[in-house]
TrEMBL record:
Residues 1-20 form the signal peptide. It catalyses: Hydrolysis of (1->3)-beta-D-glucosidic linkages in (1->3)-beta-D-glucans. Belongs to the glycosyl hydrolase 17 family. GO terms for biological process: carbohydrate metabolic process; defense response. Residues 359-444 form the X8 domain. GO terms for cellular component: plasma membrane; plasmodesma; side of membrane. Keywords: Disulfide bond, Glycosidase, Hydrolase, Signal. Gene3D superfamilies: 1.20.58.1040, Glycosidases (3.20.20.80). It comes from Cucumis melo. This is glucan endo-1,3-beta-D-glucosidase. The keyword Endoplasmic reticulum does not apply.
Length: 500
């Protein structure tokens, strides 16, 4: 996924094991139509996403991730932090239930204890380090401490005076927490988890930070930010914030703890007060971020040292409160359709939607067969889909069942309508996937990567009480006997003539 790194280090020694940087994705669940765990895992695999961060330790999700090889970061939610930080036994029980019960089948590699605790839950700060230590002790007792790292994500706002990076330091009021925390990370060979959001830095700068600087766009040398103390040149906000964290650790005499960015991204939609939350800017930021990370360029302070990063986030979350932008950080809609097509032609295989953008419409597992039959009849009738490949003796006749045939017809309609929103529903028995359903000599429409012809007006599948039968033709698709009745064939012919 990325090239071998480690060229050299500058200024401060940072321990590196020689691994390449990786891109991961956060999985938020504030969705009104959250995909099932198996559907989420199918999307991760189709997009070659090998690192995922959960904001909890959901059992169903961890079971679905079993035997996939995907590296998983599980989290202790903030509302459980106080109990764990005050009781070794409670921490051990949490690890037993949420980690030990799932490894080694599920490849859990890290535990994030809380999130933005210092800035969002200050009353829990006094027990934060204890919680880390109790979790670590439970891992040691189970001989999992080498496999699983323990840390806690921080907002970058705990770093003060962050530019120039060389004069950055952590908020002094948190020294009683940060000093033992960093020493814990150092002693356990763990890493500082940091959330880096150039979008907010840009929005809060009142025009001081140029948009191009936040989006990783190339800057002329005269526009690059230069640290007057180190003479290091900064071409983007992301690197400046990461280096500010390194210098803030150095201020506390910590020199060998790496930074892993647990959240970074850009919203694709905003309200009137957020004019730069756009599809184009989100695409630009995340595409450039992924290339930057996977190229192993490191930062000006630590060139070649990996800065592995998790994108915020996999799905748009329509249930999140706040501004419009809060609901629109996702790479995908809940249906699995990309919000935008990433520009990643030189970044490796991760996030396959960069080159193929292939999505297909298939019948849902366990869907009601009567509804599948009705949807199939509609697609091959009023929907004007070419269902001839489903005839006996044709490439897509087998397997001869309503699920397989409905999948072909649903997808043919979805592709025919240019993958327009709403054209893969069929009263809830169809779903969009990135997995190509083609099999043997049965090649599904859309397999070549073409989006098909676009349409201005979207034609939706019929409602459950629709009696539309395409000019009086009776839907009559039978299984185990003949694939089409003669009346259905005649109906399709009449429909074709009427269409043209």
């Amino acid at each position: 996924m990325a090239t071998i790194l480690l060229f050299f280090l500058l200024a401060v020694s940072v321990v590196s094991s020689g691994e390449a940087a990786f891109i991961g994705v956060n999985l938020g669940t504030d969705l009104s139509d959250m995909p099932s765990p198996t559907q989420v895992v199918a999307l991760l695999k189709a997009q070659n996403i090998e690192h995922i961060r959960l904001y909890d330790a959901d059992r169903a999700m961890l079971l679905a991730l079993a035997n996939t090889g995907i590296q998983v970061t599980v989290s202790v939610p903030n509302d459980q932090l106080l109990a764990i930080g005050m009781s070794n036994a409670t921490a051990a029980n949490w690890v037993s239930r949420n980690v030990i019960a799932h490894v080694p089948a599920t490849n859990i590699t890290a535990i994030a204890v809380g999130s933005d605790v210092l800035t969002t839950l200050p009353n829990a700060a006094p027990v934060l380090v204890s919680a880390l230590k109790f979790i670590q002790s439970a891992l040691v007792a189970s001989n999992l401490d080498r496999q699983i790292k323990v840390s806690t994500p921080h907002s970058s706002s705990i770093i003060l005076d962050s530019f120039p990076p060389s004069q950055a330091f952590f908020n002094r009021s948190w020294d009683p927490v940060m000093v033992p925390l960093l020493k814990f990370l150092q002693s356990t060979d763990s890493y500082l988890m940091l959330n880096v959001y150039p979008y907010y830095d840009y929005m809060q700068s009142n025009g001081v930070i140029p948009l191009d600087y936040a989006l990783f766009r190339p800057l002329p040398p005269t526009k690059e930010a230069i640290d007057a103390n180190t003479f290091l040149h900064y071409t983007n906000v992301f690197d400046a914030v990461v280096d500010a964290a390194y210098f803030a650790m150095l201020d506390l005499n910590i020199t060998n703890v790496k930074v892993v960015v647990m959240e970074s991204g850009w919203p694709s939609k905003g309200d009137a007060s957020e004019p730069d939350a756009t599809l184009d800017n989100a695409n630009t930021y995340n595409s450039n971020l992924i290339r930057h990370v996977l190229n192993n360029t490191g930062t000006p302070k630590h060139p070649g040292v990996p800065v592995s990063t998790y994108i915020y986030e996999l799905f748009n979350e329509d249930l999140r409160p706040g501004l419009v932008s809060e609901k629109n950080w996702g790479l995908f809609y809940p249906t699995g359709v990309p919000v935008y097509t990433l520009h990643l032609s030189s970044a490796g295989a991760v996030l396959a939607n960069d080159t193929t953008n292939q999505t297909f419409c298939v019948a849902k597992d366990g869907a009601d067969r009567k509804l599948l039959q009705a949807g199939l009849d509609w697609a091959c009738g009023p929907g004007r889909v070419d269902c001839s490949p489903l005839l006996q003796g044709q490439p897509c006749y087998q397997p001869d069942n309503v699920i397989a045939h409905a999948t072909y017809a649903f997808n043919a309609y979805y592709q025919k309508m240019g993958k327009s929103p709403g054209t893969c529903d069929f009263k809830g028995v169809a779903i969009i996937t990135t997995t190509n359903p083609s099999h043997s000599s049965c090649i599904f429409p859309g397999s070549t990567g073409s989006n098909g012809s676009s349409v201005n007006g979207t034609s939706f599948a019929p409602s459950s009480n629709s009696s539309d039968t395409a000019g009086g033709c009776l839907p009559n698709y039978l299984y185990g006997t003949s694939p089409y009745t003669s009346s259905m064939i005649l109906c399709v012919l009449l429909m074709t003539l009427a269409f043209f």
